[in-house]
Every structure is written in structure tokens, then in C-alpha cells.
Amino acid sequence: MPAFLIDPSYADLVGLTGHQVSVNVDDGSTVSLWLESISTPVGFEGYSSYSVHLTGPPTVDLAAGVHVLHSENGDFRLNLEPVGRDVRFLHYEAYRIEISAASA
């Protein structure tokens, strides 16, 4: 596990859209994921929530749960949930909640 983790904001994650991130798996190998898209945030009572959609190779199933993702902007945690599979990719989604800028 890295010594320092960032807590990426919506803007940070939008900046990574279309970029590759990596995850270390239990056998010591690394799996590449692509940050495909981020939903538009929805605000409610001072918070905003959004989802992050990632895709990975169909040959490696990441277990549902918290994973450390390594990116060009730093390492961060996301709680990934497998949501689908097709011939080319496994699809994962993570949900984030943060304090809205207007409330901070």
C-alpha cells in the first residue's frame, strides 16, 4: 500500500477520464483499468454524489470492495463494484459522495 493516498475530488476524477489507472491484485500482478466516464453530480442537502465507471480486461475479475488505484495524479481508494461483462471488458462502478462546494 502506498504511503500517501489522495482523496480525489470530482474535478480530479474528471481529469482522469479516458486515462488508464492500475490496481495491484493479490497474486502480485497489476491490472490496468480505464476510467471511462463520470456521471453528473447530483446535489442534496450540502452533498453531491456521482458514479465513476471503469472498464478492465475480461480475464481478471476484481472482487467487489475497496481497491487502491494508481494514477498519474496519485494513488487513491475506490470501492469498486462489478456491474457487467461483455466480450471485451469487465465493467466496474464506484459511487462517491462529497461535500458540495457551496457548503464547504
Can you walk through the features of this model?
The chain has one helix and seven strands. By secondary structure, the chain is mainly β. The protein has a six-stranded antiparallel β-barrel. The mean pLDDT is 91.
List keywords for this structure.
six-stranded antiparallel beta barrel, 7% helix, 104 residues, 7 strands, mainly beta, globular
List the helices and strands and how they pair.
Layout: H1 10-16, E1 20-24, E2 30-38, E3 42-44, E4 47-56, E5 65-71, E6 74-85, E7 90-99
Antiparallel strand pairs: 1-2, 1-5, 2-4, 3-4, 4-7, 5-6, 6-7
Number of helical segments with 4 or more residues: 1
Query: N-to-C terminal Cα separation, in Å?
Result: 30 Å
| Helical content class | under 10%
User: What letter string, H or E per element, gives the SSE order?
Assistant: HEEEEEEE
Spatial arrangement of strands, main beta sheet = 1-2-4-7-6-5
Rg (CA only): 14 Å
Q: What structural category arises from helix and sheet content?
A: mainly beta
Short summary:
With 104 residues, the chain is mainly beta. 7% of the residues lie in helices and 54% in strands. It is built from one helix and seven strands.
